[in-house]
Amino acid sequence: MTSNSIAVPDVVIEARDVHKTYDTGNIQVKALRGVSLEVPRGEMVAIMGPSGCGKTTLLNCLSGLDDFEAGVVLINGTDITRMADDRKTEFRARDMGFVFQTYNLLPVLSAVENVELPLIVSGTKPKVAREMALASLDRVHLRDVANNRPSQLSGGQRQRVTIARALVNRPAIMWADEPTGALDSATANEIMDLIADLNRSERQTCVLVTHDPKVAARCHRTIQMADGLIATEMSQDEMRAEVAAGGGAH
Fold first, then answer.
1. What's the average model confidence in pLDDT over 202-212?
2. Rg (Cα) of the chain, in Å, rounded?
């Protein structure tokens, strides 16, 4: 086994003893203090915890958006720990998709143009990019609004466009940071229905940060963080029981 291989081929994400410290100049904040985890292909994992516990930092370090000073992260068997920034950017574009609370859609572009943008940037021919973008909009049931701009879409539709953009390259992993945070409860449930359906029908691996225990209960497993460490892990049944009992909020 080479240094950039993992023992179990079906493990998509492997983190070993990851440490991340933020230096504010006056004080050092230990955001991650030795986090280790594995995510098998096709799993939906929620990361929860109080504000400042390190959950978004963990997502950013696992996805290569943030550097970290110690530990190892392997994505699809590839060690991204010491990967050069330009190669890491290419790797993310090919193997990862991102969904954020604020959509990050360009207002001057139509839905299909927003979805195809990462393909165009990475050098895909325009005709092929358009076909792939329309196919991705089909997957989130938005083909009929392909030519609408974000201002002409509802919040739920905008988040579906964001998901279509995240999945247009058929990535190994979809990262989602508070994907339902800006939505009302009914729309949030629709978005989670969509993510769960994509996970079930296509084995789309998804790691999402959420403050909503009902969202976490839709996932196969919930990782609870505290003070830069994984405090506990809960199965879907355990999380559902906690939600039913009125608990689980962070």
1. 94
2. 18
Q: DSSP string of 28-90?
A: EEEEEEEEEEEEETT-EEEEE-STTSSHHHHHHHHTTSS--SEEEEEETTEE-TT--HHHHHH
Side-by-side strand order, sheet with 229-235: 96-100, 173-177, 205-209, 44-48, 221-226, 229-235
Decide: helix, strand or coil at residue 224. strand
CA distances from 212 to 45, 216, 217, 233 (A): 13, 6, 9, 16
Number of residues that this document lists for the chain: 250
pTM equals 0.89
Helix, strand, or coil (residue 147): coil
CB 157 within 8 A of CB 190: no
What is the H or E stretch that residue 189 is in? helix 185-202
Q: Which of 209, 216, 215, 247 is nearest to 234 (CA)?
A: 216
* Interior angle at CA 200, CA 194 and CA 204, nearest 5: 80
Between the CA atoms of 104, 105, 108 and 111, what dihedral angle is there, to the nearest 10 degrees? 180
Structure tokens at 62: 């696992």
Task: List pLDDT tens digits, range 28-85.
Answer: 889 999 999 999 999 999 999 998 899 999 999 999 999 999 999 999 989 999 899 8
* Contact in structure between 54 and 228 (CB atoms under 8 Å): yes
Distance CA 176, CA 159 (A): 11
Q: Strands across the sheet with 70-75, in order?
A: 28-40, 11-23, 70-75, 78-79
Other Cβ atoms less than 10 A from the Cβ of 53: the count is 22
Q: Using an 8 Å Cβ cutoff, are 164 and 137 in contact? A: yes
